[in-house]
């Protein structure tokens, strides 16, 4: 399948040859246009006008009716071809999705008993192998490829006798592997490896069976081709219109270039529509416009490998769960995945002093890869904002996930009230309550995640404009949500 970007004007695609039907249409259109020019030259060279032998008005009406019938046949064929193409892609992706759901459910239904972890691993490995093989057999039966070799997960520990029996079968190999999968799940449920109740486990069997039904419907598209009589009539009418178009245009038009141009356009249009239908009628082949059959197998294998990762064994734990979770406190934010190791946390910590979180020179830069002159950088950041109140300092440490995170160290003392004008937190109490300190750390971590890997200059610009509006929002536990909300709004605007 050709993945393309149409662009604003969608004109560049006109000149692309890969997957285009124009080259094949030109094979008929160019000779027809040349014949039109030759007929005009002959008629004028020998003084014979073809219009004297034919009634132009009657010829035009007859030719219009003929082209209407041909156009109707071509459009009908193209509509059915597109319907087959779309249905074929839908059925394959549905089959793959249903089998993914079945395998994922089996993984989720496995017993969490640590003493049976080895049995669970063996079951999951065998299920992955058979599921990959089943998906491969499905695509091999559907596809019409010169090379029908597909990638599967390692099969070295699968019984050679069973594999030989599978390869010896001429039909329905996919159904054979599916039967093995169902027996494997039933055996695991009987012996307690799959600990979910039988009514729940039945969902896996339902998904497997639904996938097999979708596969058989997809197989129907391969076996049942477009009716031969219809195709035969269309091809014959196309040949006739290619042969007669030059003659009709010479009769109707007195100009040789106009006759050649109209012949070229009409013949190209008819043959192009015909070849579009031919490209779409069988979506499981090797052509450039066919479905990405091999890509489906690769994606299915990647999904199976992903299920086996250690991070998929349990749901992700909640971070910073010192206080009771309140679902009503959740806010809608813009999610942007970034690589955590690419964040310059020290730079974010330096900029966070605008909010009154970090003191002028209290940022601990352990193995910092950011700015070398910490004091100079912080002084530059503080210009125009006034001094900040020091309530702690940010350091970098490894959190429970092995990733760098921001942590606040309590300072031994805090400034009294009465900070100079422009201080970030004039109403800050002498002793910061632990819950407020925790909310500040959460706020900074969320700001870090929101900014992601954006350039430091962009972050600095956002933080500068955000600082003034956030200085007055320090009201204990509401501060974290206020900072995060403002940061998210500024991030989205950027």
Question: How is this structure best summarized?
Answer:
By secondary structure, the chain is mainly α. The chain contains 14 helices and two strands; from the N terminus they run αααααααααααββααα. The protein has a two-stranded antiparallel sheet with strand order 1-2.
Description:
It is a single chain. The chain has 494 residues and is an all-alpha fold. 58% of the residues lie in helices and 3% in strands. The chain has 14 helices and 2 strands, in the order αααααααααααββααα. A two-stranded antiparallel ribbon has the order 1-2. A hairpin with a 5-residue loop joins β1 and β2. α2 runs antiparallel to α3, α3 packs antiparallel against α5 and α13 packs across α14. It is elongated. About 21% of the residues have low confidence.
Strand order of the largest sheet: 1-2
Please give the share of residues in helix.
55-70%
- Residue runs with pLDDT of under 50 for 5 or more positions: 338-432, 468-477
Beta-strand content: under 5%
What coarse outline follows from CA principal-axis ratios? Answer: elongated
What gap, in angstroms, lies between the N and C termini? Answer: 35 Å
Tell me the number of strands.
Answer: 2
In DSSP terms (H or I, runs of 4 or more residues), the helix count works out at 14
For the residues shown, what is the average pLDDT? 75
What class, by secondary structure content?
Answer: mainly alpha
Elements, N to C (H/E): HHHHHHHHHHHEEHHH
Please describe the biggest sheet, giving its number of strands, its sense, and whether it closes into a barrel. Answer: 2 strands, antiparallel
Radius of gyration: 35 Å
């Amino acid at each position: 399948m050709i993945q393309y970007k149409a662009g604003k004007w969608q004109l560049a695609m006109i000149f692309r040859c890969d997957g285009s039907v124009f080259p094949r249409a030109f094979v008929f259109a160019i000779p027809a246009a040349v014949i039109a020019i030759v007929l005009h030259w002959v008629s004028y060279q020998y003084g014979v006008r073809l219009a004297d032998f034919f009634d132009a008005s009657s010829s035009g009406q007859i030719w219009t009716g003929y082209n209407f019938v041909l156009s109707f046949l071509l459009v009908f064929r193209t509509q059915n071809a597109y319907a087959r193409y779309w249905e074929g892609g839908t059925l394959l992706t549905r089959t793959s999705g249903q089998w993914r759901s079945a395998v994922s459910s089996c993984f989720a239904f496995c017993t969490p008993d640590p003493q049976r972890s080895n049995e669970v691993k063996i079951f999951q490995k065998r299920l992955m192998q058979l599921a990959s093989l089943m998906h491969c057999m499905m695509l091999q039966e559907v596809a019409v490829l010169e090379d029908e070799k597909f990638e599967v997960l390692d099969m070295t520990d699968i019984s050679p006798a069973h594999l030989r029996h599978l390869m010896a079968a001429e039909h329905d190999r996919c159904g054979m592997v599916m039967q093995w999968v169902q027996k494997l799940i039933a055996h695991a449920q009987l012996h307690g490896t799959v600990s979910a109740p039988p009514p729940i486990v039945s969902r896996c069997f339902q998904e497997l069976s639904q996938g097999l039904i979708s596969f058989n419907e997809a197989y129907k598209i391969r076996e049942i081709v477009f009716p031969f009589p219809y195709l035969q009539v269309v091809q014959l009418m196309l040949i006739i219109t290619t042969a007669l178009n030059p003659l009709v245009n010479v009769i109707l038009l007195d100009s040789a270039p106009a006759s050649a141009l109209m012949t070229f356009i009409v013949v190209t249009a008819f043959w192009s529509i015909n070849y579009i239908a031919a490209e779409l009628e069988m979506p499981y082949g090797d052509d450039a416009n066919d479905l990405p059959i091999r890509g489906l197998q690769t994606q299915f294998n990647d999904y199976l490998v992903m299920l086996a990762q250690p991070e998929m064994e349990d749901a992700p734990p909640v971070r910073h769960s010192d206080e009771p979770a309140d679902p009503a406190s959740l806010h809608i934010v813009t999610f942007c995945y970034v690589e955590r190791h690419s964040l310059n946390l020290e730079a974010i910590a330096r900029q966070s002093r605008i909010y009154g979180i970090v003191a002028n020179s209290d940022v601990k830069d352990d193995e910092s890869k950011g700015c070398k002159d910490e004091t100079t950088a912080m002084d530059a950041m503080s210009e125009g904002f006034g001094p900040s109140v020091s309530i702690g300092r940010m350091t970098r440490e490894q959190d429970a996930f092995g990733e760098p995170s921001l942590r606040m160290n309590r300072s031994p003392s805090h400034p009294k009230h009465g900070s100079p004008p422009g201080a970030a937190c004039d109403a800050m109490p002498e002793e910061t309550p632990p819950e407020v300190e925790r909310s500040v750390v959460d706020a900074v971590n969320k700001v870090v995640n929101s900014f992601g890997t954006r350039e430091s200059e962009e972050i600095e610009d956002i933080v500068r404009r955000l600082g003034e509006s956030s200085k007055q929002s320090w009201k204990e536990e509401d501060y974290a949500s206020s900072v995060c909300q403002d940061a998210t709004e500024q991030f989205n605007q950027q």
